[in-house]
Design goal:
Blueprint (H helix, E strand, L loop, with lengths): L2 H15 L6 E5 L4 H5 L5 E4 L17 E4 L3 E5 L10 H14 L3 E10 L9 E9 L27 H13 L4 E8 L8 H10 L3 E3 L3 H9 L3 E11 L10 H26 L1
Parallel strand pairs: 1-4, 1-5, 5-9, 6-7, 7-8
Antiparallel strand pairs: 2-3, 3-4, 5-8, 6-9
Helix pairs in contact: 1-3, 3-6, 4-7
The structure holds hypoxanthine.
The site of hypoxanthine has 13 residues, from β5, β8 and β9.
């Protein structure tokens, strides 16, 4: 079966499992799964039950869509470093598009590169640098989704950024802004790589998001991105990095992050 057919099959399956037709999608990054658990009256669709859909393997991710009248959340995403190809990494975004989603909030955990940041900070993504060495749109263009050469000059929607800033200030959450620099991982960066990231204009570094946002833009979905700075990137704090620290900080910051997300969502629906 070709890609477009697979995506249609997946979308039709989800439509058959829920009466909800939400227009706002959310990709929940590490530690944010609780946001999905707290949605009242939600319906669930496990990735493993969706025909032709990949299965999430990383710790701390559940692997399902949580669907309400207004929202469809991904609890767990597919990372390139897990061995999924770019078509698989971005399949959920295209499926959401087929379900009628026209706005997307993408969240992630990231390492702080900007020296003004500290662990636990939230950063609105103003732009990204895709340093993954590939692009999810390589291959035959899926014309039903979008054009061959999509514009990325406003990959992260300015109105949504302004709205998110307003929401943050209303609830007293301090929020940073910056450029998300996407690497494949899974090894964390070296200190020399982090100096390169900074020299090239990155404020935070992570292993997701860029591909999903490229595909969202391709299908005309307006996108907002928010990073939780879980650690200072390699070579900054003069200590070693580990996944446990990332999970620990995202757990500490999650109440603030969820509060902000709830506020943003209530302004968008
Ligand atoms: N580097 C890359 N990805 C990350 C990091 C980091 O330091 N922290 C959380 N995700």
């Amino acid at each position: 079966m070709d890609t477009a057919n697979k995506l249609n099959t997946a979308a039709e399956y989800i439509k058959s499992k829920t009466k909800f037709r939400p227009k706002l999608g959310i990709i929940l990054g590490s530690g944010l799964g609780d946001f999905g658990d707290r949605l009242e009256g939600a319906e669930y669709c496990d990735y493993k039950d969706i025909p032709d859909f990949p299965i999430s393997t990383v710790e701390g991710h559940k692997g399902r869509f949580v669907i309400t009248k207004d929202l469809i959340c991904m609890q767990g995403r597919f990372h390139f470093y897990e061995g999924y190809n770019m078509e698989e990494v971005t399949a959920p975004v295209r499926v959401m598009s087929l379900l009628g989603v026209d706005k997307l909030i993408v969240t992630n955990a990231a390492g702080g590169v900007n020296l003004d940041f500290k662990p636990g900070d939230l950063m609105l993504i103003t732009d990204h640098i895709n340093f993954m060495g590939t692009n999810p749109l390589i291959g035959k263009n899926l014309d039903t989704f979008g054009v061959r050469f999509p514009d990325m000059s406003e990959g992260y929607n300015k109105h949504m950024i302004e709205l998110a800033k307003k929401c943050a200030s209303e609830i007293g959450v301090n929020i940073k802004e910056g450029v998300y620099f996407a690497m494949t991982g899974p090894s964390y960066e070296t200190p020399a790589e982090i100096r390169m990231v900074r020299a090239l204009g990155g404020d935070a570094v992570g292993m997701s998001t860029a591909a999903e946002v490229i595909v969202a833009n391709h299908c005309g979905i307006k996108t907002l991105g928010i990073s939780c700075i879980t650690n200072m990137a390699a070579g900054i704090a003069q200590k070693s990095l580990n996944h446990e620290e990332v999970i620990e900080t995202s757990n500490t910051a999650k109440e603030k992050f969820i509060l902000l997300l709830e506020r943003i969502v209530s302004c968008m629906i």
